[in-house]
Amino acid sequence: xxxxxxxxxxxxxxxxxxxxxxxxxxxxxxxxxxxxxxxxxxxxxxxxxxxxxxxxxxxxxxxxxxxxxxxxxxxxxxxxxxxxxxxxxxxxxxxxxxxxxxxxxxxxxxxxxxxxxxxxxxxxxxxxxxxxxxxxxxxxxxxxxxxxxxxxxxxxxxxxxxxxxxxxxxxxxxxxxxxxxxxxxxxxxxxxxxxxxxxxxxxxxxxxxxxxxxxxxxxxxxxxxxxxxxxxxxxxxxxxxxxxxxxxxxxxxxxxxxxxxxxxxxxxxxxxxxxxxxxxxxxxxxxxxxxxxxxxxxxxxxxxxxxxxxxxxxxxxxxxxxxxxxxxxxxxxxxxxxxxxxxxxxxxxxxxxxxxxxxxxxxxxxxxxxxxxxxxxxxxxxxxxxxxxxxxxxxxxxxxxxxxxxxxxxxxxxxxxxxxxxxxxxxxxxxxxxxxxxxxxxxxxxxxxxxxxxxxxxxxxxxxxxxxxxxxxxxxxxxxxxxxxxxxxxxxxxxxxxxxxxxx
Length: 504
What we know:
Elements: H1 10-25, H2 35-51, H3 55-73, H4 77-84, H5 89-103, H6 105-116, H7 122-141, H8 166-190, H9 193-212, E1 221-222, E2 227-233, H10 238-241, H11 247-260, E3 265-267, H12 281-293, E4 297-306, E5 311-320, E6 324-327, E7 367-369, E8 372-378, H13 385-389, E9 395-402, H14 412-427, E10 431-435, E11 441-443, E12 449-452, E13 459-465, E14 468-469, H15 473-477, H16 480-503
Parallel strand pairs: 2-3, 3-4, 8-9, 9-10
Antiparallel strand pairs: 1-14, 2-13, 4-5, 5-6, 7-8, 10-11, 11-12
Helix pairs in contact: 1-2, 1-3, 2-3, 2-8, 3-5, 3-6, 4-5, 6-7, 7-8, 7-16, 8-9, 8-14
């Protein structure tokens, strides 16, 4: 489709195609990982934006694209809010629909900006301007409010040949490059002679540039001897976890799994024991003594009530040879606290949220095992590259504990594993992942999964993991270059497009 060529009916371009293309784009995420379909979906979206008569129509098409994109990508929120959270079905549907509607505003803004910059030459528009707008709005989506960076485009390329770019540009930069790749293919189909020659040249030159890049592991180096680790997966269903009669069986299960492994570091999932720590002092004292006697450290996910501060925290606590505590910093809205005005809170009283948690401090000392610093994150925190960067480059190994049982047998646990893999690749560090019902995994510093558990089974993983030192360019600079580049290109694109329009 071109601006002067064949056009579909307006209702098709405005209402039908955008959400279908959004759904097609999500096929690139785990567990499907058909990133070729993501590329095709983005090509179609670029064509729709190029034909949009006004920025408002571009925003409209972007919103409907976003509605299809997020509805098919994060539908599983209904499982946590209604099935396990206890919210009435109507409220659960409303919350998911509201979340999708809000998130769809970001592609709507991209669409408006894309049409506003359409005065640029077609090649600049497709290869620089629209990718820059996408980059800017993905960065904003990860930052505005508490941030919700789930379904960032770059994750679809975790197994693609371009993955070597990740330690340099990070997941958001990779997503912008994917949009530029879609623009390149679109130019081959719909561009003028110059556009097609340029696009063909890029198709030839880009693989050569990838080949010349340093290998992902070249940015970091081994930092000492391997550490023996064990990951425990108790597989306690979320529907049963907090029933009082299941507390003692759960405690016995994790004690048995811990006793059966031989490792210097043993990792339990998030909130592995369904009880406040203050109520389980004797049990934890026993775990502490047994671990110290056998020369190991146990990282245990727990919910803690601080009597001094009179607040609840979601923590990972080190017992045994090493001692320490990490308090979760980035909490999940509507899962761990309600970021709503007081007059709305009565409407959500039916939601089964046992405690309202407090954010942990930004700066926290690393827990160390055999002199190896551990970069710990809890659940949703690993979706934020900036949270993982806080522990680097001091941390030699990354650890994420989570409870994806909240999402049952949906795509969410697979997407979450994909996110963890990207953090390992960005940092050039191995990452150890303990999930209550799976997927637990040992992830190498290149983002490859070395070992993983099946879902919904009691399981353990044992491995030798080598810590690493040094900093990738992404760890050093983070998203600052991406922010700067995106803002400059978008401002310049809008300004130049308006100027060209006035001159014309």
